[in-house]
Each structure stands twice: as C-alpha cells, then as structure tokens.
C-alpha cells in the first residue's frame, strides 16, 4: 500500500484500473450503452482525481548530530509557516474535501527525580482543502471570547454547543488568514491555497 494513502482510500492508479476494467467488461459484453456512458464520463470529467499527496523527493540530508537535525526541521517548519501562499485561480472538483489536523505539543524539563522544572504547550492547526471556485472558509474555535456567539452561515446547520472553552494566547496565523477580520470579530476567515497542506494557525492555551 502506498504509504501516503489514508486508510480506506484507494490510489489514483487503482481507480483508473477499476474504470478501465469496467470499460473492458462493457466492451466484451457488447454493452453499447455502458461503453457510451463511460466515454461520456471520461470526456466530461476527465480521469479520476485523487485527494492524496503527490510528492517528489528532491534530496536527502543527514547528520550525526540529532540536535542539528531537530533544529533544521524547526527552521524548515518556521520558513514554511511564514511563506506567503495565496489562491490564484479557481478550480472545479468532482468531490470537494477539507481536512483539519490539530497537533498538541508539550515540552517538559524534568530533574533527575522526575520533578517538573519547566513546561510549555501549544496547539497547531493544519489545513488541507480541495475546494471548487475561490471560496472564503471560516473556522470555528472554542475561543472563550466567542462564547455565546456560536453561529453558522446556513440556517439548516445546528451550531455545535460546547462547554469546553479555552483562552487563546500568542496566536499566529498563516498569511492566507484575514488577520484584520480576526482582530475585529475573532472569526478565523481565510482563502486557502489549493491542495496545499499548510499550518493554518498556532497558539498557546491555558484553562479558563
């Protein structure tokens, strides 16, 4: 199995193979209507689009010092987080998809007896989207400042009510987020780059 394919997801090659196998079955059975529908779908929609990472390995690096490798990784993440990336064209997808990944990080310094000398934590939110057109996306976070203002853009969607509110501190955003909108309304609104796995925001948190 391809290592970058999520559980339950088939690769693009498998989808194409399945489509071609179906086409061959139509042809062998003399199912003219099936062949015609296959050709029509292929003409209108093109080959199946797979919502999975497409990667190209450019180079490999290594070091005998583990701390150097960790620092290099941090530097790359910081550079990517602050790199401007904007949506510059409208695309159309047969199936739209959005993924949000929350990563909790906790760093703890302990003494020889196991006592905690210092600890610091932060939350990082990563976004990946396959969306048609040039959409503005709004992300809801259980920010204590927004308590009592749980609203959604459509009347047929019931807001998710939560009792777990947090205080966001030292908030940082990706360049695609409208920071002036956040400062004014505490709403996280952004126009995401297409098919890019980006770190959308990071913040420190403490209980209310």
From TrEMBL:
GO terms for biological process: endocytosis; intracellular protein transport. The keyword Cytoplasm applies. It is found in: Cytoplasm; Endomembrane system. Keywords: Cytoplasm, Endocytosis, Membrane, Protein transport, Transport. Signal peptide: none annotated. GO terms for cellular component: clathrin adaptor complex; endomembrane system. Residues 1-91 form the SHD domain. Its main location: cytoplasm. Belongs to the Stoned B family. This is Uncharacterized protein. It comes from Homalodisca liturata.
